[in-house]
Amino acid sequence: MKNKTIWPELKFDELKPTLDTLHQWIQIVGKIRLKTMPWQNHSWHTTLYITSSGFSTYGIPYQGRIFQIDFNFKKHELLISCSNKETINMKLKSRTVSDFYDELFEKLKLTGIDIKIHDRPNEIEPAIPFKENTIQKEYDPEQANKLWITMLKINEVFHQFRSKFIGKASPVHLFWGAFDLAVTRFSGNNAPLHQGGMPNIPLEVMQEAYSKEVSSAGFWPGSEDFPYPIFYSYAYPSQENFAKQKVLPEKAFYNQEMGEFILKYEDVRNSDQPENILYDFLQSTYEAAAITSNWDRENLELK
């Protein structure tokens, strides 16, 4: 029987203009969280989270108060709430990155929050300063809503997968650098020094992020060079036989260039049981990493 849970159809060519704009906007909001939160290992303090209405910073301590910034993809608003002020909102609509940046920081000041961020995006080329960016400006409410609902469904499966691991594991969180929703498991072993390579990311940040041995999986909505949404799973460090492991479902494959297993979102969406298919991908690719890297599974996995 066809699963009654409908996963949205994502067509990259229709999603791309809104995705490009949103990617810039979430970087701005993410950098506000980065600037104000105490450091957590592997940059966990910088991420956003999936909520019942969109994306959120969750509560950020600030000078004896807490503030929070939320993208609402039901009402298409950005909400700035603070423990000692009334909530202020901004319309999410077609507007330049520059316009979004200026209004957001103006409204933050009205709330008594004075923050300065590094004003260029990370993991994006070219890294145009937000204040000067008049290129990305499209916002289609329907596409934004579809992307959020997709991540909402994925978020649930990722949380279920995370619960089966009793070793160190990351939260399920949205990294604004690459715009990917991810969850990571750690073996407890140190990893070799990472060589970096991501655009506009300091080498020391990459090296701290990958200072420990990991198996990481996520969802990525795609790019111009890779124009379809995917699920991915990789190991760092990756053993030579990792790519040769049998994983599920049959439509999953290893991409040599990216160095990770890939499963197209459409193959999950079109299956009879998308949640089960996605879980199988997460579990089997984790096992590929754990087996080939000799993880201590007896003490890391829930019995």
From TrEMBL:
Pfam families: DUF5996
Domain of life: Bacteria
InterPro entries: DUF5996
Name of the protein described by the UniProt record: DUF5996 family protein
